[in-house]
């Protein structure tokens, strides 16, 4: 066995490209809640934030309901999450080396 026994990956932004599927629905939420048109570049500052932190930063009225609606929009996003190019090859290669792999997420629910 090589130098490493295990590798742990974050899922969002590491294995899967989830940026657009989160940020484009956020633009819709901002329009609905604040009646403001934010550019994609404007909402990118929220990319590293947990969802409820975004709701706090935006100071929306009903944070829980608005967050739930954002999650719904994300889940309905037509393009969804996509693996980054080459990820599958990397995972297979590391598996063949006998190294354990795991995926983690900051999300608390499915």
What features would you describe in this structure?
It is a single chain. The chain is α+β, with helices and mostly antiparallel strands and 110 residues long. Helices cover 47% and strands 13% of the residues. It contains five helices and four strands; from the N terminus they run E-E-H-H-H-H-E-H-E. The protein has helices at residues 19-34, 40-43, 51-58, 63-76, 87-96; strands at residues 6-10, 16-17, 82-83, 100-104. The strands form two sheets. A two-stranded parallel ribbon has the order 1-4. It has a two-stranded antiparallel sheet with strand order 2-3. The protein starts with 5 loop residues before the first strand and ends in a 6-residue tail after the last strand. The mean pLDDT is 93.
- Overall, the morphology is elongated
Radius of gyration: 17 Å
Protein structure class: alpha+beta
Major β-sheet profile: 2 strands, parallel
Low-confidence stretches: none
The helix/strand series, from N terminus to C terminus, equals EEHHHHEHE
Number of helices: 5
* Annotation, overall tally of beta strands: 4
Distance between the termini: 34 Å
Strand order of the largest sheet: 1-4
- Mean pLDDT, nearest integer? 93
Please give the share of residues in helix.
40-55%
